[in-house]
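Slide 14.
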Amino acid sequence: MPWPESLSERLKTIAEASSLEFADIAAGDESGLLLRLKHSNVPSTGPPSTDVSWSCELSDRRYLVASITKPVISMLAVQLAADGAFSLNAYVRDFLDSFCRGPLRTITVRHLLTHTSGLPDMLQNNNELRSQHATLEDFVHHTTRVTPEFAAGTDCRYSSMGFAVLAVIIEQFAGKPLPQFVADRLFEPLGMSSSWLGLPAGTTDDLM
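Slide 15: predicted structure.
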């Protein structure tokens, strides 16, 4: 059995045995879409349904993703580096004066991309900042006040704050907010008309 068919049967079995309410899975390569699985465990009538196809039909469901945005933002950084905007080995202090402080001085853009900066995953006052609807710049400001968990490049630990810092650097070179830049540079060229970084203005109620 060719791999798309065997994989689809396995995915179908897993989905039907799971407690997932909904699932959408797609896979492909440069030739196009090879696998599309749409699953629902909460149909309006009848038993759970799993539809496997090789069509380009899109799901009408939208999903909130979190850390999956990191490779998307990484792609922006790599593209800017390829354009000559900055070097991946450039020190963050070259772009943000607040990183001239002792333990932050050796952190590079590459360290931010590879979770090797020593910056924390979450700040200790994360919940407080979120309740205050703090801006990205606020989070970065508080990040510059922490002591890294290890010297840059000597260990690897998941770091959401590293990507917050990276986002501010990207915005400096993009000259526009990150959500707009990712839409212009990635989503629109790829035809991803239903993808956003954050909720687009005026559509919050409909999307929620």
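Speaker note: Residues 27 and 33 are 6 Å apart (CA to CA).
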